[in-house]
Amino acid sequence: MAHILAPSAQWQMRIAKNSTDASPLTSKMWSSLVLKQNKKGAVKTSAKFRVLAVQSENGTINRMEQMLNLDVSPITDKIIAEYIWIGGSGIDLRSKSRTISKPVEHPSELPKWNYDGSSTGQAPGEDSEVILYPQAIFKDPFRGGNNILVICDTYTPQGEPIPTNKRYRAAQIFSDPKVVAEVPWYGIEQEYTLLQTNVKWPLGWPTGGYPGPQGPYYCGVGADKSFGRDISDAHYKACLYAGINISGTNGEVMPGQWEFQVGPSVGIEAGDHIWCARYLLERITEQAGVVLSLDPKPIEGDWNGAGCHTNYSTKSMREEGGFEVIKKAILNLSLRHRDHISAYGEGNERRLTGKHETASIDTFSWGVANRGCSIRVGRDTEKNGKGYLEDRRPASNMDPYVVTSLLAETTLLWEPTLEAEALAAQKLALKV
């Protein structure tokens, strides 16, 4: 992200009262939003993968589409809430639907629910019940109306967070008075790769072969350079509809790879918004018949990996004299480099090689406008003497609750010894 602006009011996690005024992302909209239709009626994307087939004006799929598009609001006050949670791998998303008696505006109005944790790798079969606690709500772009998506975290029946519940610890850190006073902002750049369904090879790549070398694909335009723009655009609009604080999107360096940015977001909101945006992307690629990959190095060789660069600032960093505060934060980050790397995503060692715009996983570094460093500081931040830093180490499959809270903990709550601080400052050529 170029810079971090003021965060939106969405961080209070409330549903807009005029949510019924907008139309949902229904299957009818795909023809203008995602799909191109040929003369025979078969609907395809520009990448020539099949999404659905309309048999006839009165055919089976057309009737199903009518059912999907039914507006039930004149008939009932009931709404559908899609409860979403993170599965046992720590990266897989799960969801199921529940009828709620009336529209809601806040998670506290929703009931807790449960699921079979033995089927998600989160509980043993003899004691499999896991409890869902609603934490954030978003408008549902697929069902529209007052229907909602509900981001939940997970607990035992006794009320203890289960091991894969990373939101719980993040919420504790973000509620610490020192952290609250510094109003931490985050801007997260989520990279992802689109794969062909049957062969698990990047979208737009010849099966079993390779496209031309990297260079023309980053922010590229044209059928030979851009693969999956329909999905990226559909996801962009779905996020805006849902109330996610999405701030942009672009094609990435490797063909078939894309990025979207979320933020600036305050505290725990950053994780909630990224997880909901990932859910929307999973649903859209599901409808498009394309596989979403968050692997940090989906293709070995001379190809860029996929990261989740995290831009971060505190109130003190954004005020006069903030550059000195940023340098103190960088010093702390250097001393906890191993702790951060271990929490920044599985398979990240395949990406952080010191090549392809990354720093080596084994060495901490920082620099101004240097994308080959662990931490990058922008030219404007240096010039203005205040601003933000960019942590370029997180992998595309990182947990945003873990990364955002760890950045706040290391820079605001953790204090190194004076000896360690002096040695690190000398090594990094920092004067703080």
UniProtKB/TrEMBL annotation:
UniProt keywords, alphabetically: ATP-binding, Chloroplast, Ligase, Nucleotide-binding, Plastid, Transit peptide
Superkingdom of source: Eukaryota
BP terms from Gene Ontology: glutamine biosynthetic process
Database matches in InterPro entries: Gln_synt_N (IPR008147), Gln_synt_N_sf (IPR036651), Gln_synth/guanido_kin_cat_dom (IPR014746), Gln_synth_cat_dom (IPR008146), Gln_synth_gly_rich_site (IPR027303), Gln_synth_N_conserv_site (IPR027302), Glutamine_Synthetase (IPR050292)
Domain GS beta-grasp: 79-159
GO cellular component, one term: chloroplast
Coiled-coil region(s): none
Subcellular location(s) of the protein: Plastid, Chloroplast
Name of the gene encoding the protein in the UniProt record: LOC105171412
Family per record: Belongs to the glutamine synthetase family.
The keyword Ligase is annotated on this UniProt entry: yes
Reactions catalysed: L-glutamate + NH4(+) + ATP = L-glutamine + ADP + phosphate + H(+)
EC id: 6.3.1.2
Subunit structure and binding partners: Homooctamer.
Full protein name: Glutamine synthetase
Species, as recorded: Sesamum indicum
Domain GS catalytic: 163-432
GO molecular function term, any single one: ATP binding
